[in-house]
Specification:
single chain, about 400 residues, mainly beta, about 55% strand
């Protein structure tokens, strides 16, 4: 009986400790969200554009994001409706090379207008919110659907509605696995889209499956080591587009110079395997990328934060009729500013490499800028407006 009494007492103490930890987490939530918003400028989120046609690597800056903040947790939810979130996305995008032609074929510019709602359903923590497991891991599942209308200024034959479906596992805004000095975050995404494409005749369907893991380990009170890995497979039902499987890895060392400034080196490696007969040309090419540079962040005020990186990247090609490759400066810079309790402003500039899946053995440098205004009207409704311009230069 004495043993049983001690065990019951230990369980009660553990539950009280868990509740206290939950309360502390709730107080720290605004800070955690602020820390997450800034890296989103430089993440590899799906974009509200034709990004499915051009799979991105880990270092690509999103140009038009689909902002779908998580609904309130089950502790605050009053009904099943609280797990739904509706986001209205509108964007204006200018492109210097809208069909991604090389210099010999001539480049054509255009302006693309997009508008579309995204309806997202996100589950609460799969293991519940009031147990020991949720103190260390809170996995969630999210399902979203976007019917997006796009209109071209000069090429109206490509106007139409594109449909996108996305399944995501572990899109929790918090950290997935929290250990004393190490945090481990992982995700699994499935995307399916259908609609008109300026890179292929008729309606194009595409499917992509991607998964990634991110590990952050505190070496000391001011220094942390970060590692990320992601794999992605993309396939198309069009003979004009080439299927590919890509793998990307990066690592960085971050050191806090002051309470507001963190800086450190990074390295990256990526490989893409292509297979298919894009535009009737059989392609079994491999593309390799190597990059290194400096990355950092600066929390200027409680409302404004800067983040970015600058480095050197080299791209090589291997396979039948492979191109000669290229190298150059890889740049990405972003700023996030909280205009009010519900309104935020984000801006970014970038110069980075992109691999084309439309023409065999060609790739290009993309240089662009973007600004996005987001407002959250309520826990279940928000809207975003994005302006983007990008200049695309091919190399073989």
């Amino acid at each position: 009986m004495i043993f049983l009494g001690k065990m019951m007492h230990a369980i009660m103490v553990r539950k009280q400790t868990a509740r206290a930890r939950k309360a502390a987490h709730a107080k720290l939530l605004p800070l955690a969200v602020a820390m997450v918003i800034t890296p989103l400028l430089l993440s590899d989120n799906a974009a509200a554009q034709d990004v499915d046609i051009h799979p991105s690597d880990l270092f690509e800056t999103p140009q038009e994001g689909i902002g779908t903040p998580l609904p309130r947790s089950s502790r605050d939810a009053e009904s099943w409706k609280d797990y739904f979130h509706l986001t209205l996305n509108a964007g204006v995008r200018g492109e210097s090379n809208v069909f991604l032609n090389d210099d010999n074929e001539g480049e054509e510019s255009d302006i693309i207008f997009t508008i579309g709602p995204t309806l997202t359903f996100t589950t609460p923590g799969l293991f519940g919110e009031d147990n020991v497991i949720s103190d260390y891991m809170t996995p969630r599942v999210s399902v979203s659907y976007t019917p997006r209308y796009q209109m071209y200024s000069n090429n109206s034959e490509y106007d139409g509605i594109n449909h996108s479906f996305r399944f995501n596992f572990n899109n929790d805004a918090g950290l997935d696995i929290r250990l004393p000095k190490t945090t481990i975050s992982f995700d699994l995404d499935y995307d399916q889209s259908q609609g008109s494409s300026r890179f292929s005749e008729g309606i194009v369907e595409s499917e992509s499956l991607s998964g990634g893991i991110r590990v952050a380990h505190a070496l000391s009170g001011k220094t942390s080591l970060n590692f990320g890995a992601r794999a992605r497979s993309t396939s198309y039902d069009s003979s004009d587009l080439i299927d590919d499987v890509s793998y990307n890895f990066n690592a960085s060392l971050q050191h806090k110079l002051t309470g507001k400034i963190s800086v450190g080196p990074y390295v990256g490696y990526g490989i893409s395997n292509l297979s298919g007969a894009g535009q009737g040309v059989e392609n079994t090419q491999d593309r390799y990328s190597y990059s290194a540079g400096i990355t950092g962040s600066y929390n200027a005020t409680g409302k404004t934060a800067f983040t970015g990186s600058v480095g050197w990247s080299t791209y090589e090609f291997d396979g039948s009729d492979a191109g000669s490759g290229n190298d150059g400066i890889n740049l990405r810079m972003g700023v996030s500013h909280q205009l009010g309790p519900r309104t935020s402003l984000r801006a970014s500039i970038w110069r980075n490499y992109k691999a084309s899946n439309t023409i065999g053995n060609t790739s290009y440098w993309a240089t662009g800028a973007s600004i996005s205004l987001s407002r959250r009207q309520s826990g279940s409704w928000s809207h975003n407006l994005t302006l983007t311009y990008e200049n695309d230069d091919y190399f073989s």
